[in-house]
């Protein structure tokens, strides 16, 4: 894992002999939640977030997705990669990924039973490219604020 990323459908993942933070927190009685990008492997169910210490998961497994429809295209693979728990999930509205993950994170925090400790890991998709076209996807109102930069890619990254 030190020399490349896990590409779609590759048969490897973060080895199970590594105990992850959510596993430690869960043992201590915490409710553990993950929102966003997993990207630590998923070729076998034992490697997915719900098996690696998280009680809940909303997000995706692959390296990059469209920021609005959660579709993946790349490395000779294409499809929808968005999950709620261990099930494929289709968001009701086409909301920009950064806003969606932030909103879901706030909902988890607000609904959490305050008498139980919580560990929440938010892994935003940004600043990764979308995997589709255009590669850099930014809401229009975000670009307006930095349009003075001029060069298109630098403006989108800003």
From TrEMBL:
<keyword id="KW-0325">Glycoprotein</keyword>
<feature type="domain" description="Sulfatase N-terminal">
    <location>
        <begin position="9"/>
        <end position="129"/>
    </location>
</feature>
<dbReference type="InterPro" id="IPR047115">
    <property type="entry name" value="ARSB"/>
</dbReference>
<keyword id="KW-0479">Metal-binding</keyword>
<dbReference type="InterPro" id="IPR024607">
    <property type="entry name" value="Sulfatase_CS"/>
</dbReference>
<keyword id="KW-0106">Calcium</keyword>
<keyword id="KW-0378">Hydrolase</keyword>
<dbReference type="Pfam" id="PF00884">
    <property type="entry name" value="Sulfatase"/>
</dbReference>
<dbReference type="InterPro" id="IPR017850">
    <property type="entry name" value="Alkaline_phosphatase_core_sf"/>
</dbReference>
<dbReference type="GO" id="GO:0046872">
    <property type="term" value="F:metal ion binding"/>
</dbReference>
<protein>
    <submittedName>
        <fullName>Arylsulfatase B, putative</fullName>
        <ecNumber>3.1.6.12</ecNumber>
    </submittedName>
</protein>
<dbReference type="GO" id="GO:0003943">
    <property type="term" value="F:N-acetylgalactosamine-4-sulfatase activity"/>
</dbReference>
<comment type="similarity">
    <text>Belongs to the sulfatase family.</text>
</comment>
<dbReference type="InterPro" id="IPR000917">
    <property type="entry name" value="Sulfatase_N"/>
</dbReference>
């Amino acid at each position: 894992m030190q020399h490349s990323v896990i590409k779609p459908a590759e048969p490897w993942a973060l080895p199970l002999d590594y105990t992850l933070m959510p596993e430690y927190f869960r043992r201590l009685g915490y409710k553990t939640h993950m929102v966003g990008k997993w990207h630590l492997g998923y070729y076998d169910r034992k490697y997915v977030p719900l098996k690696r210490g998280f009680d809940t998961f909303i997000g995706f497994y692959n390296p990059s997705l469209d920021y609005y429809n959660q579709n993946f295209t790349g490395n000779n693979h294409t499809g929808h990669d968005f999950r709620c728990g261990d099930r494929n999930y289709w968001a009701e509205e086409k909301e920009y990924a950064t806003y969606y993950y932030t909103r879901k994170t706030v909902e988890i925090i607000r609904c959490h039973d305050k008498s139980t400790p919580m560990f929440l890991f938010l892994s935003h998709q940004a600043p990764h490219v979308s995997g589709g076209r255009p590669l850099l996807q930014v809401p229009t109102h975000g670009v307006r604020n930095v349009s003075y930069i001029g060069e298109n890619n630098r403006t989108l990254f800003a």
